[in-house]
Design goal:
Elements lengths: L4 H30 L5 E10 L5 E12 L3 E3 L1 H10 L3 H16 L7 E6 L1 H4 L4 H12 L6 E6 L2 H5 L1 H13 L2 E7 L5 H7 L4 E4 L1 H4 L6 H17 L2 E4 L5 H10 L3 E2 L13 H18 L5
Parallel strand pairs: 2-4, 4-5, 5-6, 6-7, 7-8, 8-9
Antiparallel strand pairs: 1-2, 1-9, 2-3
Bound molecules: ligand C2E and magnesium ion (3 copies).
């Protein structure tokens, strides 16, 4: 009879690891087929300009409706898609679909598309971008690319060059999840972003966490001096909204304004907002 923990842990862990690996392989197989089976869709979350109180555009967020698992979160499948390089065709589909849908929105509403560093690193990314704009008819000025900082971009001059090219075309470039990576500040030095998106972890912190409030205000000030817009992500409560307004950020996004919406609900959302803005202005005494 063996008394080593080794043999015991072998018996205990192996079936569990086996099960996990099997589940992972199944997910991979399903992910490879998902695009062809039309299991992806996009939802759109409003981005609100704080000065005007109006929606300036929407962020496109990818959804995978799995036939048996139901909706799978992008945080779960995007990393796998990146590993398998499936992010390239999937990302292309996202870009084309988002441009196509946004072309039907009223001017000057923008659409923000998340792009992975692997996508931008592809030699034909600029062509894909041009093609998506051209075939949809969406003006470049109404498209924004959101890039999460990742070592890939800093280490690959080609990716940076492509981003410069996109900006020359008139496409805007935002830095997503600012403050969570290890090199956020050096990124600001290496590329002229149009917008900094402040990560939700700073926005949703405990209201008594004065450090987070200070950090958000400091990022807003940084944005002002660099000529970049600053958007606070993940605003869920009135209290957070007040703090963001006071911090000097230029825009906000979060469940408080709206959950991500299916494309067919965007019209109603904007109509509601226009009605509310009219009422608010009528309620306000003149000159205030
Ligand atoms: P992200 O780009 O930072 O997107 C914001 C995420 O926060 C979204 O999650 C959104 O639904 C969620 N969110 C928005 N407001 C709130 C709020 O008030 N509270 C909370 N708790 N969450 C909020 P989602 O849709 O699950 O996407 C997760 C991440 O997956 C995205 O983070 C992005 O990095 C990635 N992703 C989504 N779509 C795409 C895509 O088409 N391509 C690529 N490459 N990545 C994508
Ligand atoms: Mg994003
Ligand atoms: Mg983010
Ligand atoms: Mg993110």
């Amino acid at each position: 009879r063996s008394r080593t923990t080794g043999s015991r842990s072998y018996c205990f862990f192996e079936p569990e690891m086996d099960r996990q690996m099997k589940a992972r392989r199944e997910l991979e197989t399903d992910l490879r087929r998902a695009l062809g089976l039309r299991q992806f869709s996009l939802v759109y979350q409003p981005q609100r300009d704080l000065a005007s109180g109006r929606t300036s555009g929407f962020e496109a967020l990818l959804r995978w409706n799995h036939p048996t698992r139901g909706p799978v979160s992008p945080s779960e499948f995007i990393p796998i898609a990146e590993e398998l390089r499936l992010i390239v065709p999937i990302g292309e589909w996202v870009l084309r679909t988002a441009c196509h849908e946004a072309a039907g929105w009223q001017e000057p509403l923008t659409v923000a598309v998340n792009v992975s560093a692997i996508q931008i690193g592809m030699p034909n990314f600029a062509d894909t971008l041009k093609q998506a704009l051209h075939s949809s008819g969406l003006p470049a000025s109404r498209l924004e690319l959101e890039i999460t900082e990742s070592a890939l971009i800093a280490d690959h001059p080609a990716a940076l060059e492509t981003l410069h090219l996109a900006r020359k075309m008139g496409v805007r470039v935002s830095m997503d999840d600012f403050g969570t990576g290890y090199s956020s500040l050096s990124y600001l030095r290496s590329f002229p972003f149009d917008k900094i998106k402040i990560d939700q972890s700073f926005v949703r912190a405990d209201p008594h966490d004065s450090n987070c409030t200070a950090i958000v205000s400091a990022i807003a000030a940084l944005g002002r001096s660099l000529g970049m817009m600053t958007l606070a992500e993940g605003v869920e409560s009135q209290e957070q909204w007040r703090r963001i307004m006071a911090s000097g950020c230029t825009a906000a996004q979060g469940f408080l304004v709206s959950y991500p919406l299916p494309p067919e609900s965007i019209g109603d959302f904007l109509a509601e907002e226009a009605k509310r803005n009219c009422t608010m202005r009528a309620d306000r005494p003149e000159g205030s």
